[in-house]
Specification:
The protein is an all-beta fold. The chain is built from one helix and 30 strands. 1% of the residues lie in helices and 43% in strands. A six-stranded antiparallel β-sheet has the order 1-2-3-30-29-28, with no helix packed on it. A hairpin with a 5-residue loop joins strand 20 and strand 21. The chain is globular and about 55 Å long.
Length: 372
């Protein structure tokens, strides 16, 4: 049976009243909360990011219900929903909670901004067009930033065409840069334990060409901002490719998905030490097209989505034993990709109590939460 909880509007910055729909998943029986509804696109964060405040009070999501994409916060205890940003041009998948657990950081045009979720107090943290040496006076556009931090919250990584840099969030300065003439290819990830190490996806992607030398098939490059150099970092054996990588919260291991070529399965969630040694396989499926995953802050579990269109479960993997459980079935269309917010992109809360994800199973992308 489905329970309907009416959400009243908040006094200031309130979104239109909507209902959280609480129901049991038809296949697993586990409770699922539909956080958003209506005709407007709403979506959770990218799989590399964190949408929950650390006290589990608020979930932040992006929605275009006001005519342009803005960030909204829902109080998971009361259901109160508020719009918390007034962006000119929000990069919708750029947002993530800062390690302090209170502020959400995001990219608004060329500015890296922050908003305290509980109060809505906002500020420009870094004007990237002024901070990046390569951009000053050059009218550079196309910045990327906002989704990764050092464990102490002092640093993030940012890029503009041809360059990547280490940004000191305490003074807004780009301290170190490295040339990336072929671009970062997205997935720019700062090592939480060593902010001078930043991984990014190599462009062009040549992993499927099994005739190339191994180093030319690298999925991931790593930049050492101390020396200003880059080198191939994650290289798969012939017959395989890697996708959707991320650092463990402590930065001691680097996780990634390994997939068979041609085809997709068998697919595995694997990891290696920061120095590239000690490769481990944590979970393998011969049938599930594992897509994006995230490890809990205590390293106890991983949650992964599956990228089979309209037939995709969320998988919870216990790291110690390798046992897995199907949590629920988002059944998103998947094929529409990022532009249509059709990927599930699961995210575990800092405490491990909740999983957030996106699904367009109703015809419009909406945000969902699974209590664990």
């Amino acid at each position: 049976m489905r329970r309907r909880t009416f959400l009243g509007c908040a006094a200031a910055g309130a979104a239109p009243a909507e209902r959280i729909l609480k129901s049991a998943d038809k296949r697993t029986g586990r409770q699922v909360w539909q956080i958003t509804s209506g005709d407007s696109i709403s979506h959770s964060c990218y799989f590399e990011a964190q949408p929950f405040t650390h006290d589990d009070r608020f979930l932040v999501y992006s929605s275009n219900r006001s005519g342009a994409f803005q960030l909204h916060a829902v109080d998971l205890g009361t259901g109160e929903t508020r719009q918390i940003t007034r962006c000119g041009r929000l990069s919708t998948l750029s947002y993530s909670m800062h390690p302090n657990g209170r502020e959400v950081w995001y990219l608004d045009a060329d500015s890296l901004c922050k908003t305290e979720v509980s109060t809505g107090k906002s500020a420009v943290a870094v004007d990237l067009a002024s901070a990046f040496p390569a951009a000053v006076g050059a009218k550079v556009t196309g910045f990327s930033a906002g989704r990764c931090f050092s464990s102490d919250g002092k640093y993030t990584a940012a890029s503009c065409p041809g360059w990547m840099g280490l940004v000191n969030l305490e003074n807004g300065r780009v301290e170190k840069t490295v040339a990336t003439p072929q671009g970062t290819g997205g997935h720019m990830l700062i090592c939480p334990a060593d902010p001078y190490l930043v991984t990014f996806v190599r462009m062009p992607d040549q992993q499927n060409d099994m005739k190339l030398p191994m180093e030319q098939r690298a999925r991931t490059m790593i930049a050492d901002l101390r020396s200003g150099t880059t080198r191939p970092y994650l290289i798969m054996p012939y017959g395989w490719r890697a996708t959707h990588e991320y650092w463990a919260p402590g930065g001691e291991r680097f996780y990634f998905h390994q997939k068979k070529v041609p085809g997709w399965v068998p697919a595995s969630i694997c990891s290696m030490k920061r120095d590239g040694s000690d490769w481990q396989t944590h979970f393998t499926s011969d049938t599930l097209m594992l897509g994006h995953s995230m490890i809990s802050s205590d390293g106890r579990v991983i949650v992964s989505d599956v990228q089979k269109p309209r037939d995709n479960p969320l998988v919870l993997v216990e790291m110690r034993t390798g046992r897995h459980e199907l949590l629920c079935w988002p059944d998103s269309s998947v094929a529409g990709g990022h532009p249509k917010q059709a990927h599930v992109h699961p995210a575990l809360s800092h405490s491990g109590k909740y999983v957030a994800y996106t699904s367009d199973r109703t015809g419009t992308p909406q945000v969902y939460v699974v209590p664990l």
